[in-house]
Amino acid sequence: MIMNKIFLATMLVVLFSCNDDSSSSDDSSEEGVDISTVVINSFKNSYTNAVSVKVSDGYITISSTGLPDHKTPYWGVGHEMYEDFPGTNHANANTSMTTYNYAMRIPVVPSEATTKEVTELGAVGMAVNGVPIYNDYEGSGVLQENAWSTFDSSGAHPGPNKDYHYHCEGTYLTVDSNNLIGFLRDGYPVYGRKDADGTYPSNLDANGGHTGTTTDFTDAIYHYHVSNNVYSTSGLYVIKSGSYHGTKGTFTQ
Ligand SMILES: [Zn+2]
Ligand SMILES: [Zn+2]
Questions:
Q1: Domain range spanning residue 45?
Q2: Are 231 and 238 spatial neighbours (Cβ–Cβ below 8 Å)?
């Protein structure tokens, strides 16, 4: 009987040890959050219906035509989704937008890159409505007034190839909110300027992100935020600048 009690006590110690082990492995799994369910549930374009998500072999491919699901002057005067430019500047008024066959491929489980790659000119991510997200660069260099004067109320405009894209916070994506905006090419999500609890994050790294829970992810995950600093004299907030936190996937058109 005594031997049995000792044996039981030993077993309890072993069981508690096992619990300790499993909780410490939860901590290390911060780097390994599966994003597929959130991606599948978030990506949709209620106007064109032209956004689809496929998951296979550890990667998610999000396809879209790149047209928005909200009003912009770039639909063209007379279009049912037309609205005027904000303010009085119509610098890009004769430019229109066209459809593409975009496909962004991101990992199901994003991971931090050893060497952080600087984001480039062109699509650095995709908004949840399938529109590409650009950083703070234009063909001629960092965004200048000649570029932001062409933005619609969504902080977006078409490039020289009629490729509509977001650079900044705007009416239909987020304005000073904690909305999920989209995902960057490394698979990490981008949120508005605020965190889920309505406060502005105070510990963002040089790439505009940090690790924590969000309204979509109950396990802590690295995520970016729209910059909370006004960009130059534009009065606008740039969605992304700097480098990717993770390894960049492909974005084809
Ligand atoms: Zn642009
Ligand atoms: Zn955050």
A1: 32-252
A2: yes
